[in-house]
Amino acid sequence: MTARSIQRRPSDLVATVETLLGRARAEGDAGRPARALALCDRALAVLSADRNGSAELNRSADRAALAARILITSAYQHSGLGDLARAMSALAQAESTDPTQRPAIDGTRAMVLMRAGEDAAALAAFDQAVPGLREADPRLLSTALLNRGWLHMNAGRLAEAEADTAEARAAAHAAGDAWGVHMAAHNLGYIQFLSGDLPGALASMDAAQRALEDPPIGMPALDRARVLLAAGLVTEAAEFGDIAVRDFDRNKALSELPDALIVAAETDLLQGEWQRAQTRARQARRLNAKRGNPNAALLAELTELKAAAAARSGRPNSATTAKAAARRAAQLATALADAGLPADAAVAHLLSAQALLDAGDPDGALDAATAAGPVARDVPLGTRLHIRLVSAELELRRRRQPQGLEHVRRGLDDLADFQSRFGSQDMQSGAAIHGAALARLGLRTALSGGSPAAILQWLERSRAVSTRLPAVHPPADRELAETLGQLRLATIEARTAAVAGHRDPVLERRVADLRRHVRTRSWTVSGSGTAQRPLTLAAVQRLLAADPSGPTVIAYLHGVQETHALVITGRGASHHRLGDWPHLHGLIRRVAADLDLLAAPRIPKPVLTVGRQSLQTALAHLDAELLDVVRTGMTDGPVIVAAVGPMATLPWGLLPSLVGRPVSVSSSVTAAMADVGRPGRAHLRGVLAVAGPDVPGGGAEAAAIAAMHAGAGLLVGAHATGEAVLGQLPDGGLLHVAAHGHHEPDSPLFSSIQLADGPLYGYDIAPNPTRPDHVVLSSCDVGRSDDRPGGEPLGLAAALLRSGVSTVVAGVSRIADDVAASTMIVYHERLLAGDGPAVALATAIATADGAPAPMNCFGSGS
Question: Which chain regions cross the lipid bilayer (predicted)?
Fold first, then answer.
């Protein structure tokens, strides 16, 4: 609609202009500056079309005030599109049109300056505008205080930021401005993030987002991406970062788009997508330069150099190339320092130091690292760990190993303290990615020396830090329980539609949305703030010596090529180099494939024969390569394997030399020692046997096991629902489930077992007020596991152990239903006879007839 086409009565004119202006502000608040600007232009056109002067605008002052308000809104939208010159021009025009609008003009000018990166000038302008706005317009006051609070955040003045943001929320509430209340609540969450309270930040942001009927998309997504990136949840951070990039790009929000591109580039870096990270950072640098924000362009260039350094790492580079990278980083460090960005300048100095190390110039690298300054507690964790890494590499290059390893130790201790703040397994395990390079350096250095005591220390510091944290017991959460119930129903409906050949995109989107909500809610729980230090070799040996069964711990670890084993008993310890990891990994995959084949129904006899021969050959090779070398250091007692990833889910009880021998698997030696010598006897504290759908013989298996234990509960058929299972869990007792399951590689607590009303997730069990001590998952392969960088194990078994369950017995490959049932009957007979879980499982596996029973005892075997 153009001004020429508008034919309205004079009484409609003000309402029309006010409506257009209100819509423009709403579009701007939602992050759509191009649409907002178009509406401002229409409002001005309507106003100018009233050439004769309406009755409601019969005073020039009224007309001038309305025109100035439109111009002020227009100026802010121009700045959102990156056109700072037109923004300033619109403000100048507004001031000449109506000088009485000076407070609003000053506030908007401050916001335009802030978007241009002129933080000092913007702060001065806000300080000038706020007193006048307190007397004038609470809505404009709220906006000004929100943005001044943002400037304080960026400068690290968190107390001032919180005060401004809290006042902004009150002003927005007084003005009836729901969007302003939302943004203030969101920004208070961001202040929590800057203060180090990541769970609290996510909780506040989630509450703010849900409180508004039609919340903005881009900025909340960008801030969530920043928090999740800091927590190490890289996949989730990338998802929110991409949402922000798309939203800002679609709405031509060129002042916010570069920030989103930088966050997206940072997630690319942690995912190993170095080329894409460089491309995005370069795009952000050019956009910032184009819109006249040189400081933001410098920060984008820093991310670009980080990506270049990561791409260079581990590859052959000429000294000339490395020195050129060092010079560019040093120049950037100087520019960042001159711009008043010392923490970012320190990162650039570290990049220069690393490049000089690559160039073979340790003296120059030392000078560059010294310029970065000491490790300060108020800088981000990633920067602190980066300083520790470069400092450690420098000391090790100078053959000062104790000093180098001290930097590694202190960095990993910082990481453990950081992880301890989280009450979410996702966030605890995700944060390990920040220390992966430090952990590799410490362990690589220890392995080169060959000392068992040193190797154990660095293995425990590098692997599964979350296993040294208190068990995660999130509080009971009614909303989470309701969402999980909705997710169960939606999952069944979506699967039914897919099986029928009629996939339902709406249902599938609902499943994805519900899963996202469950994870987001779990991230808001805080942790204990404490982390157990790794056990020393002497402490481990004392615990083993005190156990009359005489156990042996074998910790397996591998890099890209080499595989190692650390053997510990009550009498001694030894380190052994084993075969190449790619070869061993291939054998493990072959075993898993053969087991899956043998578990399938109705296999032709010739195929079955070949499969059995292939399995036995692969198991014999693994037995020889993993155990022959270490056998002389082992006792005759139980074996405790400390491993993660594929090595943890190898069916150890099927290796020829371990058949009939008790074996338990833990993710770390420290975790394995928690229950050494402690009699479990969970079955004496109550038993619940459950059978899920579509498991032939599952009901009979559950009934037989329930009949073996006095007073045991039994849930089969339609009675075996998630609600019923959670309501009857024996506290500290034993839960036996004969049901199919699903292993979720990316999110361990979404691994599930299939019940009558849908999947029962790890998320269901973790916050339940009663929790079993011993869980048996007999008819599925949810014992499978993956690991995140930092050696953090993922999978349902790992999730249950982190929730406080002591022992999980589960399949690590597909298992025939009849084999699972017969094996479990023997297992429970041995438990009732007084055997511990590892002994009972070893006996049951050894006596299994027909197809093999690939099951492991995870956690405590005693």
Answer: none
Cβ atoms of residues 447 and 564 within 8 Å: yes
Residue 540 has a pLDDT of: 94
Q: Which of 272-281, 450-459, 563-572, 755-764 shows the lowest per-residue confidence on average (mean pLDDT)? A: 755-764
**Which domain, by its residues, includes 645?**
537-675
Confidence check: pLDDT of 791 > 60:
no
Please count the CA atoms within 13 angstroms of the CA of 132 that sit on its side-chain side: 14
301 inside domain: yes
**Burial group, residue 60, by CB count within 10 angstroms (0-12, 13-18, 19+):** exposed
Of 623, 627, 626, 625, the C-alpha closest to 615 is 623
Residues 459 and 520 grouped into a single domain: no
Query: Residue 422 pLDDT > 80, yes or no?
Result: no
If one compares 220 and 214, the residue with the highest pLDDT of the two is 220
Q: 569 and 508 in one domain?
A: no
Spatial distance between the Cα atoms of 659 and 819, rounded to a whole number of angstroms: 17
> Do residues 660 and 756 both lie within one domain?
no
Question: Cβ distance 830 to 840 under 8 Å?
Answer: yes
Query: Does the residue 96 lie in any domain?
Result: yes
pLDDT reported for residue 657: 95
Residue 838: phi and psi, rounded to 5, are -65, -40
The rounded distance, in Å, linking the Cα atoms of 462 and 814 is 31
Domain boundary among 643, 675, 707: 675
Pairing of β 734-738 and β 687-691: parallel
Q: Which of 368-382, 445-459, 460-474, 590-604 has the lowest mean pLDDT?
A: 460-474
Residues 6+ apart with CB under 8 A from 120: none
pTM, two decimal places: 0.75
Interatomic CA distance for residues 452 and 450, integer angstroms: 6
**Residues 516 and 555 both lie in one domain:** no
